[in-house]
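Service request form, structural biology core

Requester: graduate student, group of Dr. S.
Request type: structure prediction, single chain
Budget code: on file
Notes: please return the result as structure tokens.

Sequence provided:
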Amino acid sequence: MISDPTLCSLNRVNVDDAELLRTSLFAVGVLDTAWASCCSELSRAISRLKLIFVQDALTLLRVSFSAPRVQHLMRCSLSIDNPALADFEKLLRSTIIHLTNCDLSDKQWLQASLPIKMGGLGVRKVSSLALPASTLAASIASLQNTIFDSVRPSDDEMLGVYLSKWQSIPGAVLPSEPFPTKQSFWDSPGITQARQQVEESKSVATQKAQFLAASAPRSGSTSSGLGAPHTCRCGATIDAFGQHSLVCKRAPSRIARHQHLNDLVTRALVSAGVPATKEPVDKRPDEMTQIPWRSGKLLVWM
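Core staff response, request fulfilled:
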């Protein structure tokens, strides 16, 4: 019988409910509660994101409220087969549909979940991140074996299962120890596989060209797929590719893009030490340098 008042004041916790640094130690019990809480927080955040500007909402969703919010949980808990991952992704997908104002097919959602540098929106699917986050533990396996060598066998059966799953991904090659300590290494094969699936789904040459352009280096594109055909305010019919907006005289963003390009050119010249000034509105040319550019002639752009 324990009589020490300090020990008696401690709360008894079931093994399945044991936590360490706010993460579950086992794949049952409190882990389900933790994922339910994450889904609830995401749902509350989504309801508020819908009240602000779309681009701001998309940025906040990508860098804060989606996968980055649960990275710690996936790295420290056995979340790979947890059904809450699907619920979390349903919330993400519905939010992307609302923000982009278009329905997403499975392939379009897969493309949207790719990193921006690969032609996606950067809103990663947690189901694709759970395995890389778990296999990251392989990088500290030798340290764990050293610490626990006297109390348990050195082989981690669960980690072996995860490494086997990871190696089943095409292109995944397990390096020699010590294993890489960056999650990007463990994430790369899955991303490459998803990108290949998206590219193979582009049956129309225009679609494939758009995807390759969006995933080209320094493209910075946030295109997630095709739009819906509709009638422009000028009366022209716009197809799913939306290219008419680039030439439409009544497009609301056409003049803004034109002025922005002029600003970029002007600032580039000024930063290079070449005096340049903008012409008054409704006069041609648009811009002109104040000193000769080459062969005694001024540089003019329209």
